[in-house]
Design a protein that fits this description.
Blueprint (H helix, E strand, L loop, with lengths): L2 H16 L3 H12 L4 H7 L9 H36 L19 H15 L3 E2 L5 E3 H4 L26 E3 L5 H9 L4 E10 L11 E11 L4 H16 L5 E5 L5 E10 L16 E10 L1 H6 L8 E8 H9 L12 H4 L3
Parallel strand pairs: 1-4
Antiparallel strand pairs: 2-3, 4-5, 5-9, 6-7, 7-8, 8-9
Length: about 350
């Protein structure tokens, strides 16, 4: 190696040996090895040398680079060992200092409200059930009085999982009703919260993935009065003791008669505001007496038993409780939003 390169090597090794931390090591590395550093300049001079000298200079420059890299690695490992030994020795440790604060997460607002809803239904004698999110078309449609040629199928923008239409991402939690009727003996009451999917255009009030909770009661002599009382008891516990509800006729293939449930606007107490479009009421969920075809699909004796069912959006419930103005916040994973809960 030429005297010039020997000098560069000796200076670099001396500086590396004097480094006391990783940052000073990095400074030496930048000066010698980065673009524009000493080694790069030596390599850039090669084209100006005599042809016979070029291979020699190239080899020497690479030797210099290898020596510096080896010294940097050795000194870095030595500094790591020194730091570990210092930490193990306890030097500078003050046991009276408070421990570092532990950052803790929190439950997603939908999870919080879902658990509260489950507790409410459990207190009312309901059993909490779950069902598959990838559902058979039979349970998602046919058993719920929605056969292949039924016009109500057009109301579901469905994520189909196969070309034959045998598997779908469930569009509602209603399939759990059929599975419950197949596996339980009346009388029974079940609630089924869960995630559902629809191929909808996403905006502030619609998303392709959202959450519902389904309720079903089957027994002897159940009527619309039992349905209304259940909904009032549930919604008043969640949204306030003074809440009023009303039922309007509505069409759903799996209930007869069917109703739309309106709740008194919790933002203006019924006096009229922007949220309720000055009507004093907000359309909230659907419900009704279970259609005999659905009971028969679940193996229930329709001559002896009747049932009522209702389904509501958990996302919407959270939005109403906390004044959330965009459903897309729930799937955004934005900590600025989630940390508020």
């Amino acid at each position: 190696m030429s005297a010039e390169l020997d000098q560069h090597r000796d200076e670099a090794l001396t500086r590396i040996g004097a480094c006391g931390d990783a940052e000073s090591l990095r400074a030496v590395e930048r000066e010698y090895l980065d673009k524009g550093g000493v080694v790069a300049k030596l390599l850039a001079e090669i084209p100006s040398l005599e042809p016979k000298d070029r291979p020699v200079r190239g080899a020497e420059a690479n030797q210099l680079k290898a020596a510096i890299l080896a010294a940097l690695q050795a000194r870095g490992e030595e500094l790591d060992r020194e730091a570990l030994e210092a930490e193990r020795s306890g030097a500078g440790f003050d046991p009276t200092l408070p421990a570092a604060a532990t950052e803790r997460g929190s439950l997603h607002p939908i999870t919080q409200v879902k658990r509260e809803v489950e507790d409410l239904f459990l207190s009312m004698g309901y059993t909490i059930l779950d069902g598959p999110e990838v559902e058979l078309g039979f349970y998602n449609f046919d058993a719920l009085n929605i056969p292949a040629d039924h016009p109500a199928r057009e109301e579901h923008d469905t994520f189909w999982c196969d070309e034959q239409g045998g598997l779908v991402l469930r569009t509602h939690t209603s399939p759990v009703q059929i599975r419950a009727m197949e596996g339980l003996e009346p009388p029974f009451r079940i609630a089924a919260p869960g995630r559902v999917f629809r191929n909808e255009a996403v905006d502030s009030t619609h998303d392709h993935t959202f959450h519902q909770v389904e309720g079903l009661a089957v027994g002897e002599g159940l009527s619309v009065g039992h349905l209304t009382g259940t909904l009032k008891a549930f919604l008043r516990q969640v949204l306030g003791e003074q809440l009023e509800i009303r039922l309007r006729p509505g069409y759903f293939p799996f209930v007869e008669p069917g109703f739309e449930v309106d709740i008194q606007c919790p933002f203006c107490s019924g006096s009229g505001c922007r949220i309720c479009k000055q009507s004093g009421w907000i359309e909230y969920c659907g419900c009704g007496m279970v259609h005999p075809n659905v009971l028969r699909a679940g193996g229930i004796d329709t001559d002896r038993y009747t049932g009522f069912a209702f389904g509501m959006g958990l996302d919407r419930l959270v939005m109403m409780r906390y004044g959330v103005d965009d459903i897309r916040h729930f799937m955004s994973a934005d900590l600025r939003f989630l940390e508020q809960f």
